Amino acid sequence: MAGSISDYLESKILDHMTGKTQFTFPTSRWVGLFTTAPTDAGGGVEVSGGSYARLEFNGATGRAFTAASGGAAENSAAWEFATASADWGTIVAFGIFDALSGGNMEWWGDITPNKLVSSGDTARFASGALDLSVT
Predict the structure, then answer these.
(1) Which of 97, 134, 93, 108 is nearest to 6 (CA)?
(2) 21 occurs within a structural domain
């Protein structure tokens, strides 16, 4: 999966590194799914309805990322969304957010191949399938 840090997070990192404003680390983050990919500036079309909700990850949920190595990290176990109760459409990208709804997108990436999620399907990321990298 290709991905990119959002403009929001780039600014937070730069302000932190240059001593302007310390970045406050959220206790949780959420991964969301898109039918139209966002850009570094945001946007895109996130799935809505049909039992969709962003998926929380932190140490307490059992959903986490591996420790970064060589500028990359990946999900350390399989992550599963709620079963779709309506068609979600074709999922083309994911986003990482600092809130369950709304909030700031911090990262996004393409999902290849795209995945059609119909009513009754369960979207999931296999262990190691959600890759984040900084190059």
Answers:
(1) 108
(2) no
Q: pLDDT tens digit string along 78-105? A: 999 999 999 999 999 999 999 999 999 9
Selection from 42, 16, 113, 129 nearest residue 78 by Cα = 129
The amino acid occupying position 90 is T
For the entire predicted model, the pTM comes to 0.92
Is 35 inside a domain boundary? Answer: yes
Tell me how far CA of residue 67 lies from CA of 41, 47, 53, 133, in angstroms: 27, 29, 26, 12
Q: Residue 105 and residue 57: Cα distance in Å, rounded?
A: 14
For residue 86, tell me if it sits in a domain.
Answer: yes
The reply to whether 11 falls in a domain is yes
Total number of domains constituting the chain: 1
